[in-house]
């Protein structure tokens, strides 16, 4: 039997793959890690005596077992989030931005429709455009020519009359 001294290293005293990872000075317990990742502790006051297992090896992240630890069994593997779950905070953000933009466009169009109110001269009267009105229909109802209606409303686009907007109809 060989001589033991305090200067022997852990590699000489511990089984292959075992390494010391900690020491608790209060309880005088040494902690070791095995090659497979399981944790072992010594008896209080003993550095190298009989070791007892404290925890099993942690499970690896990889399915094929190429990592430092073996893969976890299928029934206890952590559930990985799908891309939909990962994108859920962004969905809420885009929903708020989209709602904000819809409100802005609605407000702009609402204001645009109100800006169509005009002031007519002494020779004409205002006419509020209703659904289904056309320039030709308005001119016919007022017993006017289409050219007279267009002349009174310079820049009038008969293809896009705004409902609720106003045009000037010349008095006959």
> Helix-strand pattern, N to C?
HEEEEHEHHE
Subunit arrangement of the protein: single chain
* Count of discrete structural domains: 3
Q: Averaging pLDDT over every residue, what do you get?
A: 79
Summarize the helices and strands and which ones pair or pack.
Layout lengths: L9 H4 L5 E6 L4 E5 L5 E4 L8 E5 L27 H32 L9 E5 L6 H7 L4 H7 L13 E5 L2
Antiparallel strand pairs: 1-2, 2-3, 3-4, 5-6
Characteristic terms for this protein:
172 residues; Membrane-bound Lytic Murein Transglycosylase D, Chain A; four-stranded antiparallel β-sheet
Please describe what this structure looks like.
The chain has 172 residues and is an alpha+beta fold. It has 3 domains: 10-76, no CATH class; 81-115; 124-170, LysM domain (Membrane-bound Lytic Murein Transglycosylase D, Chain A), CATH 3.10.350. Helices cover 29% and strands 17% of the residues. A hairpin with an 8-residue loop joins strand 3 and strand 4 (51-55). Helix 3 packs across helix 4. The chain is rod-shaped.
